[in-house]
Amino acid sequence: MATPEHTGVVREERESVAARVAQARKLAGLTQWQLAERANVSIGLVRSVEQRRVSATPAFLGAVSKVLRVSVADLYGQPFAPAAGQDREVHSAVAALRTELAAYDIDNADVLEVRPLDQIAVEVGRVCRYRRAASFHKLGDVLPALLGEVRAAVHRLDGPDRDRALVMLCELYYSAHSLAHKLGYTDLAALAIDRLSWAATESDDRLWTATAQFQRAALLTSGGDWTAALNFLDRCRSSIEPRLGAGQRADLIAWGGLHLQSGLAASRSGKRDLADSHLAEARETALRVGDDADPILSFGPTNVGIWSVALAVEGMDSGGALTRAQHLVIPADAPRERAGHHYIDLARAYLLHGDRRRAEHALLTAKDVAPSQTRYNPMVHETVRALARAEARSVDTVHGLAVWCGIAGGL
């Protein structure tokens, strides 16, 4: 009879990304050679991922998902099972959000009382702070009802007041995207971006329009359609470029943010020089902006520094990532959502560099900074699995992280 420990290991192997890739490949009727050829990756990488000798990177999963005709989220196994307690309540908010996003253009003003816009604005500002702090539980508590109220306001008002309500709706749709994306509900996250694009267009708000474009390109990049993402982002920036000389803050933030997203697509497609070119443009623009006070894309010098580390990691350049991280100082008041992402990327960089102790420490820091975001991040799960396979001496730390993340069997 199998021991509980053995059962946990077997279950973990069956539920790993490696197993899902292998299963999807076999269901597609492809050999490892055929998958490698069609996805334009090396046969050695396919074998190493399926044999759990290396972690599956976002770039690898984006490439093979297109060939296998499955989503990256399916290969990750998202959404992950919620932890006990408050996390289950957060996941329960997803159904209400899904219904509200489906009803975006339906007039509900005759059945819902709407407060004055100034009062609603206070609540929307609070949602923005929750999003930047990666406060999943608070977002789940307030988003569904507030979305309904602001939707009613949009249908009830006209003129400048309607535009103001639409801008509020942009923040709420963006926050809904953030929550759904980080919990692993990728279909709902994509729907939220579609709704954000609608509200931004209706309000004629340039920065929110660029934010919708930024996230639409992120969907293309995640799915491995890097060329489409780069072409789309080039087209989006072309409408901003004629206005750059005026130095309007919203235009600068949009221009720089879209360059960062281009850098990500370039990094994942293996075009390091192109990624560095986009990063340099973003860095120069951030200096013109001068601060990181933008509450939407968080664009500014610090966030560009965070992205510089991430782009190097995505390009599998651990040395470059760690060098860039050495010169990066994250202020204490930086959004926890951005700081948490940095430490997740830093853990990946240390792991690539062979420094497992620092990788563990970076994960623990990410957990302290943005716990819910870290718990449900798929690359955290992959990093924890890789640490468990490679470092028996750290078994207590890694085991604790695995159990906290909800990885089957706790590794």
TrEMBL record:
Superkingdom field: Bacteria
InterPro entries: Cro/C1-type_HTH (IPR001387), Lambda_DNA-bd_dom_sf (IPR010982), TPR-like_helical_dom_sf (IPR011990)
CDD domains linked to this entry: HTH_XRE (cd00093)
Any Pfam family: HTH_3
Annotated ranges, domain HTH cro/C1-type: 21-75
SMART domains registered for this protein in UniProt: HTH_XRE (SM00530)
Name of the protein described by the UniProt record: Helix-turn-helix transcriptional regulator
The species this protein was found in: Nocardia callitridis
